[in-house]
Amino acid sequence: MTWPRVGIDVHCIGQRQTGNETYMRNLIERMSAMDLSWDFHFYHTLPASDFPHHGWRGDIHRVTPHSAMLRIPFAFPHVLSRDHIALAHFQYVAPPVCPCPTVVTVHDISYEYFPEYFNPMQRLRMRTLIPLSARRAGAVLTVSEYSRQDIIQRYGIEPERVVVTYNGVSLAFRRLPPEEVNTATARFGFQRPFILGVGNLQPRKNLERLIRAYARLRTAGDCEHDLVLVGQMAWKGHRIQETVERLGIAPFVHLTGYVSEHELVALYNRAVLFAYPSTFEGFGLPVLEAMACGAPVLTSNTSSLPEVAGEAAITVDPYDEEAIGDGLRSLLHDEALRTRLRTAGFSQAAKFNWQTTAEQTAAVYARVLEFQKG
What we know:
Layout: E1 5-9, H1 18-32, E2 39-44, E3 59-62, H2 68-82, E4 87-91, E5 102-105, H3 110-113, H4 120-136, E6 139-142, H5 145-155, E7 162-164, H6 178-185, E8 194-198, H7 207-219, E9 226-230, H8 238-247, E10 253-257, H9 261-270, E11 273-276, H10 285-292, E12 297-300, H11 305-309, E13 314-316, H12 321-333, H13 335-349, H14 354-373
Parallel strand pairs: 1-2, 1-4, 2-3, 4-5, 5-6, 6-7, 8-9, 8-11, 9-10, 11-12, 12-13
Helix pairs in contact: 1-14, 6-9, 7-8, 7-12, 10-13
């Protein structure tokens, strides 16, 4: 019996693309363990020896060139036709002309609201190609009801074609024994308790306001903790370091750069609290990862973040530095509040798992394939 072939663009894996990579890696790992009547074909851009797949069920192919501007519109139609793919899954951008129906995951459309957060080439590519890909897709997957409504209204897509498949929380994010935490974080050399922030160093993560709110607390004598920011340097990320230097708090603020998953889990475990005052998120997975590790959470009251955090976090106006500071102060000085949020956070994080994401995604594949057959 010949099973339909499903092709998945996995170029983000092995590229340290944070949320996109986390989503795709966990999705494929779960689907590989499921009893699905499809032949999977995975397409990446790395040399075979550098591609980090772990027991995936399917054929793995390298597609070149690495540049998306050439690979997606030109190389992909060829390889999908060559491999007789019946359905192809992409994140954000699919080939404008494709030999098979597509499923496109669009995590959010932040570029529509905050174009200044992206470089000019990114803005042009996103605003042109993502709407086109979404409108032509057999189905659009997104990661929150907030993003679903946003995509439907902004791009005029039929509601039944836009499906929410929430992100999950990997089982790696959990409470760790103290000795394991200490070993995993030893290389950072942190001596004092700290507030933790996670995310690429870019304006959308709102780290400059967080830093200014933190600096005010230190000046007022309300905070003796350090601030640890985990993430890669991104568009305009240099402004974060400049803000730290200008405020004179460099001895207390640590920029770690990219860290391994195990180190990140340990940092969540060690943090006194987790601060995530992002101005816009399609989901905000670090909020749930922190909760799963027992870190009390402060996050924003905008976009998808209230939907994801539920009642298990303090939510504040991300544009109000005083509100951010008040939230930090409350968490730092109220042990009972931290305990309550820690307990609620475990329950909230447990609602989101990658197995459910994989099952829902497989159901969308089946629906699109069935429609195509009909």
